[in-house]
């Protein structure tokens, strides 16, 4: 990583495939009858956890260089796993499989790593119990999760929090429930499940925050081409904006509006950025070029935009530190329930460099000021991929060598992150 300091960055990059879409394509392919090709999937720690679980319940998966092939006889032929399942660090795997396993009517038990075993699962359990499922949690909240087969009936559910994982778990269960499942969202969360379920033949309608899904329909296999993950692209984009002389183009990234809140904030900040949309059906995609911007304006974000950029808030905090005006994030208490408490992690680590925060329960304000030049500092990554990548971008932008306690968690969403940055080094 130190070779990346005192460099400038220029060029074109393709970031790895979208994590949310890769998880969902594995699950829907396992449920569907036939042969699904997933092209350019994200090959990472988290998505391999989903793959192993789909194999454990009977999907036949072949891994080729640039694609995965899933063959399934359909949900009726899936079976209960013979051993306890392991979801590692993956919140999406953990939440979504509760809905999938309960929906198909399988008996299963799973837990994850230390972080997952402290993350709340009752938010998924609650609506599924209303559907008639039998799901038991440790201390009524955490993994290990035990799921027992029970017939399900459709519910009409008002989402108490904006969470695509909870929404998707309900929809996965709803695919096999008796009746029409309705989910109502007050703020839109990512809608990949809805788009992909329609593509796989589900009878699903989504309009004005209300999703209706008919149960008891058989899914049909359908090929998926996974676009680049905007949550991964956010790191080289921030690097380009903050590093003098830099200009980076990220090709073929998902521009799904339920994910692209970060681009709206970068526009508010006056970042030098150009977006080219590309033709195609399904998920919106495009190329993003970002370049060094010496003067960045402030922002004040809350409400409906928050779920559309929830995973980008650590890197937004870093961008905010370089703004000449205050930057405020509110309504983001969900950040405290991610891989780590991301509000605490961002404030604790960036404060070591004199960056001033006013921390709130649901966010923070970054106060403009200078960033201390520190010779060499120990920082913590909290085994959280997005905190670690943010710290690496900070290290490069500030030319400050950082000793990160453990950076292996990068592999959760972006294996090859350091190599990709290396490939953009002008003097490489
Ligand atoms: C995800 C949904 C979001 C996001 C996570 C991936 C998904 O979580 O933070 O990284 O793929 O559905 P919540 O549903 O908890 O908001």
Describe the fold and architecture.
52% of the residues are buried. 30% of the residues lie in helices and 24% in strands. Strands 1-14-16-15 form a four-stranded mixed beta sheet. It has a four-stranded mixed beta sheet with strand order 3-4-2-13, covered by helices on one side. Strands 5-6-8-7 form a four-stranded mixed beta sheet. Helix 1 packs parallel to helix 2, helix 3 runs parallel beside helix 5 and helix 9 runs parallel beside helix 10. The two termini are 13 Å apart. The protein has helices spanning 19-31, 45-56, 91-104, 122-130, 164-174, 192-199, 230-242, 261-268, 313-321, 342-351, 385-398, 417-423, and strands spanning 10-13, 33-39, 60-63, 67-73, 85-86, 108-111, 134-138, 142-148, 156-158, 180-184, 204-207, 210-214, 224-225, 247-254, 272-278, 285-291, 299-301, 327-329, 356-360, 363-367, 377-379, 402-404. The protein has two domains: 2-16 and 228-427, UDP-n-acetylglucosamine1-carboxyvinyl-transferase, Chain, CATH 3.65.10; 19-225, Enolpyruvate transferase domain (UDP-n-acetylglucosamine1-carboxyvinyl-transferase, Chain, Alpha-beta prism). The chain is α/β, with parallel strands linked by helices. The structure holds shikimate-3-phosphate (S3P). Shikimate-3-phosphate (S3P) binds at residues 20, 91-92, 163-165, 168, 189-190, 310-311, 334. This is 3-phosphoshikimate 1-carboxyvinyltransferase. It comes from Salinicoccus halodurans.
């Amino acid at each position: 990583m130190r070779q990346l300091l005192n460099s400038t960055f220029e060029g074109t990059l393709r970031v790895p495939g979208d994590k949310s879409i890769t998880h969902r394509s594995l699950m829907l392919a396992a449920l569907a009858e036939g042969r699904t090709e997933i092209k350019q999937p994200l090959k990472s720690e988290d998505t391999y956890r989903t793959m192993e679980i789909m194999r454990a319940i009977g999907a036949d998966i072949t891994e080729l260089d640039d694609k995965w092939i899933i063959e399934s006889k359909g949900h009726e032929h899936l079976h209960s796993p013979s051993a306890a399942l392991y979801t590692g660090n993956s919140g999406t795997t953990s939440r979504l499989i509760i809905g999938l396993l309960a929906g198909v009517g399988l008996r299963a038990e799973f837990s994850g790593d230390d972080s997952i075993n402290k993350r709340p699962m009752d938010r998924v359990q609650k609506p599924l119990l209303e559907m008639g499922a039998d799901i038991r949690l440790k201390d009524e909240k955490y993994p290990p999760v035990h799921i027992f087969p029970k017939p399900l009936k459709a519910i009409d559910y008002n989402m108490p929090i904006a969470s695509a994982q909870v929404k998707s778990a309900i929809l996965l269960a709803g695919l096999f429930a008796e009746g029409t499942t309705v989910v109502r969202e007050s703020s839109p969360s990512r809608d990949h499940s809805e788009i992909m379920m329609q593509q796989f033949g589900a009878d699903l309608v989504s309009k004005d925050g209300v999703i209706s899904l008919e149960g008891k329909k058989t899914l049909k296999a359908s090929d998926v081409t996974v676009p680049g993950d905007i949550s991964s692209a956010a790191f080289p984009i921030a690097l380009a904006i903050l590093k003098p002389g830099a200009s980076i183009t990220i090709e073929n990234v998902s521009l799904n509006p339920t994910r692209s809140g970060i681009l709206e904030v970068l526009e508010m900040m006056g970042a030098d950025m150009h977006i080219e949309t590309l033709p195609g059906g399904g998920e919106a995609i495009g190329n993003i070029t970002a370049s060094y911007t010496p003067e960045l304006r402030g922002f004040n974000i809350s409400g409906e935009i928050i779920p559309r950029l929830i995973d980008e808030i650590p890197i937004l905090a870093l961008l905010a530190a370089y703004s000449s005006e205050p930057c405020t994030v509110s309504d983001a208490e969900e950040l405290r329930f991610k891989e780590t408490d991301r509000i605490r992690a961002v404030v604790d680590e960036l404060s070591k460099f004199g960056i001033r925060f006013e921390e709130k329960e649901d966010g923070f304000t970054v106060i403009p000021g200078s960033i201390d030049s520190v010779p060499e500092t120990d920082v913590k990554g909290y085994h959280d991929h997005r905190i670690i990548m943010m710290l690496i971008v900070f290290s490069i932008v500030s030319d400050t060598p950082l000793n990160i306690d453990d950076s292996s968690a990068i592999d959760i969403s972006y294996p090859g992150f350091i190599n990709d940055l290396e490939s953009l080094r002008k003097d490489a």
